[in-house]
User: Fold this.
Amino acid sequence: MKKRHKSIIVVLIVSLALFSCLGQIAMAQDRIKALDDDKAAYMMGDLVIMRPLGIAATAVGAVTYVLSLPFSLLGGNEAEARQKLMGDPAGYTFQRPLGDF
Assistant:
């Protein structure tokens, strides 16, 4: 009789462990779905707000680069000015995955 009780207790413990794992899996799936919904919102915000601002920043940086070009050439930092004023905004706008800030 004792062996039978031990077997029943082991079966109950294993069953409870499995059911608790199933609950954790369900909660994790809900969290993953919520993160996917957030990702869609980030993508929309990026497409509608941040990409146009990035295009504008790239254009303003290009104009500023052209205006500062004589001084950059005299100072010997033309490549750094080009990268900071045009390269970085263009990379942020056109090379970054959508929704990845």
